[in-house]
């Protein structure tokens, strides 16, 4: 139980940590210094971990991992979409 709580808290902190970046992008509409390749690799890694998390949750374990990984997938996807949106808009 303790480790589940630790995983939930840690995962939420990691996910919420992306919010300042997202807000900065929206505020400045600038993504010039962000590497799309890096974010795409992170997105791929998180997506692969998501498949594993779904498998664990289907077995009745790892629900905390699924929740926090899904949050990470959502926020990193948001950054990738913002990079694509603002790069296309600046051309």
Automatic annotation (TrEMBL):
The lineage of its organism: Bacteria, Bacillati, Bacillota, Bacilli, Bacillales. This is MtN3 and saliva related transmembrane protein. InterPro entries: PQ-loop_rpt. The keyword Repeat does not apply. Keywords: Membrane, Transmembrane, Transmembrane helix. The chain crosses the membrane at residues 6-26, 38-57, 63-84. It is a multi-pass membrane protein. It comes from the Bacteria. It is found in: Membrane. Pfam families: PQ-loop. Gene3D superfamilies: 1.20.1280.290.
């Amino acid at each position: 139980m303790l480790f589940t709580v630790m995983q939930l808290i840690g995962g939420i902190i990691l996910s919420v940590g992306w919010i300042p970046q997202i807000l900065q992008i929206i505020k400045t509409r600038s993504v010039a210094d962000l590497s799309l390749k890096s974010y795409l690799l992170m997105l791929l890694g998180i997506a692969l971990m998501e498949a594993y998390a779904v498998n664990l949750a289907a077995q009745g374990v790892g629900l905390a991992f699924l929740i926090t990984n899904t949050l990470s997938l959502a926020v990193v996807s948001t950054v990738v979409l913002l990079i694509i949106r603002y790069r296309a808009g600046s051309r």
